[in-house]
């Protein structure tokens, strides 16, 4: 009983998904209903030629062998042609209606999902790979498009066909009608066995496997350079290999172990539906008084039985389409349920540009331990505060709470004395500029890439920001300078050069608060010196007033002159103070600084010229003395 209830619930979910799906079509959902109605009428009209054939067979048998007496044959032929043309015209009109609704529905699904993702907290994308999201937003919409455009009107036609078949089966001779119903019943039983219960569960796991394979495939393509460097194959990329194997086993088990026998039985009986008429005819003929009429009926059922495979095939595809639609709608609705940054009912404006963490705690979804545990520190307006500490200490998490990539689980993060959750998201974004470890350039000109920070900026303002970010050498080597489209004609940049362009974006935005997350992560020594110079410019606004800077750093050379250094370890504040105060405390920071100095002094003995050694020493000294203020 419990298993049956689960199957009913799954079937109801599949059917109910159509209603949820049609909600995306808006006013055009009426076209779907009209299209289904036209498809149903088309199927009923398509029975006309078969009825005309029965009339023709009846008249021919009645006058046999004097065939010339059957004068109405030509009329039946023209009627059959008219029914066929009418059926095609109605079906075409129905498909036009359903296609218009399907295209609008798929378009709205993509638009709503994309629009929702635009308002989703940015932290959501850390836990959801771009490949999986693309599969949901684009792939699921494409699957539902096929359902609404073709499968749904075909379903309406199949229902009309089954009703029409049941009616016609019992109009002429109920005994032959029952014989035709036997293969229909067997085929339906096989389909329910394949599609119900475990079949629905398979479709869910099948779609999950597709999403997983798409996600890991995207990661594998991005990691091909690493794979090729180490002369490995796809087997070295374990996740992708396992995803392929999982999909293969899943599909094979369902097709071979679960569906092979019922599918073979279903196809056999519906393809040989006419065979079931023979024993009935043999048993019925001895008691017939009107052999001619019975022969006409037998001819009709023998011809009409050819419709049965078409009807059952449509029903089978209908069940599969409903299962796919249910899964697709669930996944899209899952994206639409992603947390968004909602503007507060009564937004408040920050008084200044100070930042304060007040007993803030945060735990990632699914994690057992908090990433931040009762963290408290202040970033005064116009000050530069650095977050340092071992990897996994919570530095990036803390920086992400300021622009509300995530919201704290407990405590608060305030800007200008106002909880960031009480600030209008648009206002908060205007106040904060970001430079992250991983940055991407669009396939646009360098000018437009930098202008993305402030679309209304003039060309001169963009050029000034690029100059302030020490990007002059980058523009000089590009074929069209600032108008060069990134990624074309060999216009590619190193990680450190991209970081400088990101700094130019931040400078152009001229936000009073700057969040830097390991901005020198991909910089070589030469780029790091220029990035340090760009930091000095970024730390001050256009009018010369100091910005509030919260920076995450692993290279201690970038933080020694910060106004305050906060050391995070295992999600807690281990210590905080200036560089000198922390060295005097002889705690975690002092040990990290000692390790840093040893790494700076270490070098390979070179046989190069004295000039080369002097230049290397000068560059190392410049890095050691670098600052952001």
Descriptive key words:
629 residues; alpha/beta; 6-stranded mixed sheet; 4-stranded antiparallel sheet; 24 helices; disordered N terminus; disordered C terminus
Fold blueprint:
Elements: H1 2-22, H2 29-45, H3 48-63, H4 73-119, H5 124-127, H6 130-172, H7 174-195, H8 198-222, H9 224-229, H10 238-258, H11 260-271, H12 277-284, H13 291-304, H14 307-336, E1 355-362, E2 372-379, E3 384-388, H15 395-401, E4 410-415, E5 418-419, H16 425-431, E6 432-435, H17 446-451, H18 459-468, H19 472-477, H20 495-509, E7 513-517, H21 525-538, E8 548-552, E9 564-569, E10 572-577, H22 579-585, H23 588-601, H24 610-624
Parallel strand pairs: 3-8, 3-9, 6-7, 7-8
Antiparallel strand pairs: 1-2, 1-4, 4-5, 9-10
Summarize this structure briefly.
The chain has helices at about 1-20, 30-45, 50-65, 75-120, 125, 130-170, 175-195, 200-220, 225-230, 240-260, 260-270, 275-285, 290-305, 305-335, 395-400, 425-430, 445-450, 460-470, 470-475, 495-510, 525-540, 580-585, 590-600, 610-625, and strands spanning about 355-360, 370-380, 385-390, 410-415, 420, 430-435, 515, 550, 565-570, 570-575.
């Amino acid at each position: 009983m419990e298993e049956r209830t689960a199957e009913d619930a799954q079937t109801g979910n599949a059917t109910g998904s159509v209603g949820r799906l049609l909600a995306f079509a808006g006013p055009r959902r009426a076209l779907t209903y009209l299209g289904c109605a036209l498809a149903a009428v088309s199927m009923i009209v398509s029975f006309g030629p078969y009825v005309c054939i029965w009339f023709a067979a009846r008249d021919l048998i009645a006058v046999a062998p004097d065939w010339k007496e059957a004068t109405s044959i030509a009329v039946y032929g023209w009627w059959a042609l008219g029914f066929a043309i009418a059926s095609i015209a109605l079906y075409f009109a129905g498909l036009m209606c359903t296609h218009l609704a399907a295209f609008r529905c798929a378009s709205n699904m993509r638009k709503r999902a994309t629009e929702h993702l635009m308002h989703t907290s940015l932290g959501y994308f850390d836990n959801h790979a771009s490949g999986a999201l693309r599969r949901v937003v684009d792939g699921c919409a494409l699957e539902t498009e096929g359902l609404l455009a073709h499968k749904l009107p075909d379903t309406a036609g199949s229902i009309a066909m089954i009703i029409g078949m049941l009616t016609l089966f019992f109009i002429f001779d109920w005994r032959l009608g029952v014989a035709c119903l036997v293969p229909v019943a067997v085929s339906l039983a096989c389909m329910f066995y394949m599609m119900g219960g475990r079949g629905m569960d398979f479709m869910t796991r099948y779609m999950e496997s597709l999403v997983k394979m798409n996600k890991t495939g995207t990661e594998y393509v991005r990691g091909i350079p690493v794979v090729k460097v180490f002369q490995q194959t796809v087997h070295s990329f374990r996740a992708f290999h396992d995803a392929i194997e999982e999909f293969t086993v899943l599909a094979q088990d369902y097709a071979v172990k679960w569906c092979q026998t019922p599918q073979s039985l279903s196809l056999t009986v519906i393809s040989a539906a006419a065979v079931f008429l023979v024993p009935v005819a043999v048993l019925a003929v001895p008691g017939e008084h009107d052999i001619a009429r019975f022969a006409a009926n037998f001819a009709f059922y023998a011809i009409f039985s050819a419709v049965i495979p078409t009807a059952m095939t449509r029903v089978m595809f209908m069940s599969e389409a409903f299962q796919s639609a249910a899964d697709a709608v669930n996944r899209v609705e899952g994206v639409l349920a992603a947390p968004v940054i909602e503007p507060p009912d009564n937004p408040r404006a920050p008084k200044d540009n100070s930042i304060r963490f007040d007993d803030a705690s945060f735990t990632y979804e699914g994690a057992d331990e908090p990433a931040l545990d009762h963290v408290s520190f202040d970033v005064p307006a116009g000050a530069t505060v650095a977050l340092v500490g071992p990897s996994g200490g919570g530095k990036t998490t803390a920086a992400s709470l300021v622009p509300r990539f995530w919201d704290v689980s407990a405590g608060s993060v305030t800007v200008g004395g106002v909880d960031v959750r009480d600030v209008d998201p648009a206002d908060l974004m205007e106040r904060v500029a970001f430079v992250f470890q991983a940055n991407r350039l669009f396939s646009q000109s360098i000018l437009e890439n930098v202008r993305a920070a402030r679309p209304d900026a003039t060309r001169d303002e963009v050029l000034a920001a690029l100059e302030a970010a020490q990007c002059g050498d980058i523009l000089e080597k590009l074929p069209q300078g600032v108008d060069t489209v990134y990624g074309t004609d060999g216009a590619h940049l190193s990680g450190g050069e991209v970081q400088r362009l990101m700094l130019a974006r931040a400078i152009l935005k001229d936000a009073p608060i700057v969040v830097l997350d390991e901005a020198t992560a991909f910089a070589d020594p030469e780029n790091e010196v220029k990035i340090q110079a760009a930091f000095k410019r970024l730390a001050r606004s256009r009018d010369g007033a100091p910005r509030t800077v919260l920076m995450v750093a692993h290279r201690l050379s970038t933080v020694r002159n910060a106004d305050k250094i906060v050391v995070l370890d295992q999600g807690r504040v281990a210590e905080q103070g200036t560089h000198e105060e922390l060295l005097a405390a002889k705690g975690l920071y002092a040990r990290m600084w000692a390790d840093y100095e040893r790494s700076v002094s270490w070098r390979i003995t070179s046989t190069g010229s004295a000039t080369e050694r002097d230049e290397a020493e000068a560059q190392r000294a410049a890095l050691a003395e670098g600052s952001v203020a």
